[in-house]
Structure formats: structure tokens, C-alpha cells
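*** Residues and shapes ***
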Amino acid sequence: MPSMQAKRISPHNIRHTTAVHMLRSGVDINTIRAWLGHVSLDTTNIYAEVDLGMKAKALASVDVSGQP
């Protein structure tokens, strides 16, 4: 793909992109942790903090407008 020639793609980029795609697809964060080989869930939570779109979707799904 010509548009990719000037870009530097590392194994880390591929791991990161795959983890974010898995998260967006609804894969449990603990499963992603195991797939990445992270010992600590704190390390994997970095991927969850990256995606603002997912955060917005989660907040939109919590409707508290009818609550006192």
C-alpha cells in the first residue's frame, strides 16, 4: 500500500492496534491482558484509556435523566 511506505510500523504498533480493536469489539479487558502477556491489569488498562469514542459510548448508555 503506497500510503504506508513512509510510515514506520513496529511490532508494538501492531500489538497496540490489535488490542484496541479487540477492546472495541467487546473482548473483556482481562482476556486482552492475557493475550498481551501482561502480568498486571494496570498495564492493560492503558489501552482502555486511549479510546475516547468508547468512553463516550459507555457514558451515553447510562441514562440517569429519569432518576431523582
Residues 16-56 form one domain. The longest helix spans residues 11-24. The chain has a mean pLDDT of 83. The radius of gyration is 16 Å.
